[in-house]
Design a protein that fits this description.
By secondary structure, the chain is α/β, with parallel strands linked by helices. The chain is 44% helix and 18% strand. The chain contains 16 helices and 13 strands. The longest helix has 36 residues. The two termini are 43 Å apart. Bound molecules: beta-D-glucopyranose. Beta-D-glucopyranose binds next to helix 7 and strand 10.
Length: 466
């Protein structure tokens, strides 16, 4: 399947060196059969996560979002949106205009979150968020108004209602104390009340996957899946309520935040995890958590490549056996380098510049081997994501007893958007594993901002449309 890409990438590497390097890369090449197995395991885990009694032990959490309808194009109004989930925090003012079916971003502001704050007390983080929101309201002259607010909080939360959302655990680079097990809306409101100089209207909590699905849903009403492949990875989709055993009701659908990043946390992916995945997990701030995510998403891919490069160098297959200080520094090989290295035109030149930057002495074979390594790691990620997405599409098709499903997936995330062959490889895998599903991919434009407004709008207009 990725045959073409790999053959191109092996050009110019002497056969002897190539076969030795391939030995290290072999565990990253997953056959279609293996991917089918992975998909079958995920299929079972989706059911476990939805079940009333199996849920609490399920690694794939399948969280109800209380979003019961996708947009129908009649939504309108002014909203505030908060977006927390990556390295930055954003505040936005969004206007949804019904006549033009447009979601307009009126203005926005980015506040950096220092690394220490990502690991410090939760109160400090929420005070910082409340302060950034205040600055934004002042700058926009919005302070007297109490606009409804959509809060995109891109972590696994047990949602009790649209405005009650309990953090199950931090993921990615965050680990603030005193937040896990707490209601995030309450923490935000408390921080605002501590200041006492402004207030907010009703709050809707949104995962970024849901924001992505909803922002694409405004443009294409058959969008029923949202997927993120960025710093972290995850997907949501519209599930039949009768299958969501933890929520009352028999009719209609509800968007489920799968939290597929946790797939494998019960050890079910042991056969495909490599020794490098194990090191990435063990040296992370949350060992044992989000195994699938750690094989796929932007926060970890560069580090997997770095560990492979160190191993190949130690075994004299790269750089004449000489590493550099940078190569030996955790996280020094950034995931964005992989996109530059694997570029069709100019990729080799980019590789050489990056290797020089990392203080390595390379020759032309070295740079080709490095490109091959990046390709093995990014291909595996794309195929695993493809297998997971195919599982969701197949489930929707079977749920609806259709022979053929036509649906749209809203997608966001730097890995998907920036990597040169990622999306193509992902789609090829989905075609193989979900041959009866015809999927359109729609890249979301700011799902975390505009999508949050959309969820808030749908929630407000909500009941009449169900
Ligand atoms: C979080 C998800 C989020 C994903 C993408 C994961 O680490 O658990 O809630 O959707 O990252 O941002």
């Amino acid at each position: 399947m990725s045959g073409d890409a790999s053959t191109v990438h092996t050009d110019g590497i002497p056969p002897d060196a190539l076969s030795k390097v391939q030995e290290y890369l072999e565990p990253f090449h997953l056959s279609v059969e293996k991917l089918r197995e992975v998909s079958a395991r995920l299929r079972k885990d989706l059911v476990r996560g939805l079940g009333k009694h199996s849920h609490h032990k399920a690694p794939v959490k399948m969280l109800p979002t209380f979003v019961r309808a996708t947009p129908d194009g009649t939504e309108k109004g002014d909203f505030l949106a908060l977006d927390l989930g990556g390295t930055n925090f954003r505040v936005l003012h969004v206007r949804v205009v019904e006549e033009e079916q447009k979601v307009l971003k009126m203005d926005s502001q980015i506040c950096a979150i220092p690394k220490e704050m990502m690991l410090g007390p939760g109160v400090q983080l929420f005070d910082h968020i409340a302060a950034c929101l205040n600055d934004f309201l002042v700058s926009q002259n919005l302070k007297g108004q109490t606009l409804p607010l959509g809060f995109t909080f891109s972590f696994p939360c047990e949602q009790k209602e649209i405005d009650k959302s309990i953090l199950i655990r931090w993921t990615k680079g965050f680990n603030c104390s005193g937040v896990e097990g707490e209601d995030v809306v309450k923490l935000l409101k408390e921080a605002i009340h501590r200041r006492g100089d402004y207030d907010i209207g009703s709050v809707a909590m949104v995962n970024d996957t849901v924001g992505t699905m909803m922002s694409c849903g405004y443009r294409d009403q058959s969008c029923e899946i949202g997927m993120i492949i960025g710093t972290g990875t995850n997907a949501c989709y519209m599930e039949e309520i009768k299958n969501v055993r933890r929520v009352e009701g028999e009719d209609g659908r509800m968007c489920i935040n799968t939290e597929w990043g946790g797939f494998g946390d019960d050890g079910c992916l042991k056969d495909i995890r490599t020794e490098f995945d194990v090191v990435v997990d063990e040296t992370s701030i949350n060992p044992g958590i989000h195994n699938f995510e750690k094989m796929i998403s932007g926060m970890y891919l560069g580090e997997i490549v770095r560990l492979l490069l160190v191993r190949l160098t130690e075994n004299k297959l790269l750089f004449e056996g000489r590493t550099s200080e940078a190569l030996l520094t955790p996280d020094a090989f950034e995931t964005k380098f992989m996109s530059e290295i694997e570029e069709r035109d100019g990729g080799l030149e980019n590789t050489q510049n990056i290797l020089t930057e990392l203080g390595l002495k390379w020759d032309s074979v070295d740079s080709r081997i490095v490109r091959l390594v990046c390709n093995a790691v990014s291909s595996r990620s794309a195929r695993l994501c493809g297998a997971a997405l195919a599982t969701l599409a197949n489930r929707i098709r079977v749920n609806r007893r259709l022979d053929h499903l036509k649906t749209t997936v809203g997608v966001d995330g730097t890995v998907y958007k920036k990597h040169p062959n990622f999306s193509e490889e992902l789609r090829a895998t989905v075609r193989l594993l979900a041959p009866d599903c015809d999927i359109t991919f729609l890249v979301s434009e700011d799902g975390s901002g505009k999508g949050a407004a959309m969820v808030t709008a749908v929630a407000q207009m909500g009941q009449s449309k169900l």
